UniProtKB/TrEMBL annotation:
Keywords tagged on the record: Dioxygenase, Oxidoreductase
Residue stretches making up the VOC domain: 46-171
One MF annotation (Gene Ontology) recorded for this entry: dioxygenase activity
The UniProt record lists the keyword Oxidoreductase: yes
Organism: Glonium stellatum
Protein's UniProt name: Glyoxalase/Bleomycin resistance protein/Dihydroxybiphenyl dioxygenase
CDD domains according to UniProt: GLOD5
Family recorded in the similarity comment: Belongs to the glyoxalase I family.
Amino acid sequence: MIVRSRIFQFSTNSFPIRFALAPPSKLHCRQYITSSKMFPIARAKSLDHLVLTVKDLNASVHFYERFLGMHHTIFESRGAQRNALSFGQQKINLHISGKEFEPKAQNVHPGSSDLCFLVEDSVDDILERLKDEEVEVLEGAKIVNRTGAQGRLRSLYIRDPDGNLIEVSNIA
């Protein structure tokens, strides 16, 4: 009969604990594993902001204000005027292509993002409004079922002026 080690993991309020129980005939000094490499360096709790690189600032601001009800804000940082879109407790900073602020992502270019927004309005109502405004809705102009960070979603997909994929969703 072969008896194998079992590894157990549980969490305390401050960090995860992982240890191994060896079979009785194989007890040795590595019975309890407490390596610091098993603990995260930092633990993310929320997303504060993200950055979109855009070709046309005005077109992007208009799109996100009109289609998602965001608010355009202008602020100063390190002596430069910056643009952002605010909604809830989140913010999207807008960088104009070729005029990005440092530091920046390694490969920045407009149209490379895929973003999902949870919305208050029914996606059924939004779909009808988009059709009335002749906005192209992807996935056959239908509402589709997806899975997000908070569980099942009912979603529709459109593109912003730069070609970023925008998912508009309700929690199912």
